[in-house]
Amino acid sequence: MNPSSSADPTDRGHLLTEQANPHSQGLDQMSALELVDLFNREDQRTLDAIATARAPLAAAIERTAAALRQGGRLFYIGAGTSGRLGVLDASECPPTFCTPPELVQGIIAGGAGALVRSSEGLEDIAEDGAAALAERQVNELDVVVGITAGGTTPYVQGALAAARQRGATTIFIACVPAEQVPIAVDVDIRLLVGPEIVAGSTRLKAGTVTKMALNILSTGAMIQLGKVYGNRMVDVSVTNVKLRDRALRILCDLTELDRAEAADLLQRSGQRVKLALMMHWSGLEAEAAEAKLAASNGQLREALKG
User: Angle at the Cα of 94 (from 92 to 99), degrees rounded to 5?
Assistant: First the structure.
């Protein structure tokens, strides 16, 4: 239902994320196995929510990839669990796709300390959200993704309003219907998983489905930027033993080189898998192969056609 015009604006009880789940009313009397089964049944709704939001998720991927291709940046902004999920997704982009840390950034109300210590009071200050974007000089090339399960977080609302004023592409991710919390953004993603097993605890289904959506958004954008070949992360950062092993396996699998030959190729490419593949398939040395890749905006398939 919608709140009436005379309703208390701080009363969020009408929101889908704040309602009591009828399937978990006897939660405190359930056995451990019954709890696991209930969680499993309820978590099925996250898959349905993603499927229902497929069109706006695809639009978000396309808008984000286009912005990054033009030199823009991707910002996630949120508070509490939503903010932590944004920071997590952003922090995983450099090791997975070898992106510079400034390309995808997570902003959480309260700063780094809020990652490990609750600072929910700071989510009520809309001006702080706007200030966070000003500090990072967000502009028309950038994408700002506001994440808030209940949709009403002032910190996020303030940031999105500022992002619109700055000409940035705006994306909204919430777990409430648009009629409960309408907002003017470029892409509106609603992940409707229903009330939580523990009423209002949006780190549960809402948190799970938000993580799924962020996985899809960031990975989809990076795929469109050419950071994946087939289903291999060819821009993987080779920074430790595990990642070096992965790089060598990618080269061996895709080129049919043996491990020693792959190691030599990786060394000659400066530990860059995509460049190593370009060198191997084109017969070019590193400098010429790198120039071909650059001319194709990092798209390996396009570079190989040239």
Answer: 140
In a domain, 186, yes or no: yes
Asked if 199 and 57 sit in the same domain, the reply is yes
Distance of CA 237 to CAs 99, 226, 272, Å? 9, 15, 8
Report pTM.
Answer: 0.90
Residue 13's CB is within 10 A of a number of other CB atoms, namely: 12
- Domain hosting residue 266, numbered range: 241-305
Catalytic residues: 92, 123
Q: What is the mean pLDDT of residues 45-63?
A: 98
Q: Do 246 and 271 lie in a common domain? A: yes
pLDDT of 6 higher than 50: no
Same domain, 68 and 195: yes
Between 124 and 125, the more confident residue is 125
Domain assignment of residue 201, yes or no? yes
Q: Over pLDDT 90: what percentage of the chain?
A: 85
Please say if the pLDDT value at position 167 is more than 90.
yes
